# Entry
Amino acid sequence: MAVKPVLKMGEPLLFQKAVPVEHFDTPQLHALIQDMRDTMAAMDGAGIAAPQIGVSLRVVIFGVGTNPRYPVAELVPYTVLINPQVTPVGSEMEDGWEGCLSVPGMRGIVPRHARLQYTGHDQYGNLIDRMASGFHARVVQHECDHLDGILYPMRIKDMHNFGFTDVLFPGQDVQDD
# Structure
């Protein structure tokens, strides 16, 4: 359909809790998902949430295959996840660098649950129920946070670990998630 502009931190919609999807397999939902997919692909992103393109619905998509922005990241299956529920498995946390299309040019170290179970539905209403760990778990948590009005800088514990990518990683080609 179309590559949409991505809202940036400071836009009020990004701090609101998104509304659950009530109807699956509709032309409107399919169009939204295609717009999200086009936008994510155009920016070589790992994921995107509907609020990031100005739509307050509980819809995220994510997936990482061969991606020049994530050359060492494990593969994450392309997933459309609607009305997600995320449940930590165990208490282990992992710190890792994150960026965001809504916080361009910056990175920060964010603690995330190391393992989790996530459930929800695809665009047709089919149930999704998966376990995830590592980078896959981090991406799911990051994208689902957007549905609750949480941007990754709000989770940073030490602001010494937050800054502009060109300062934190001089000479490296580090882009936003």
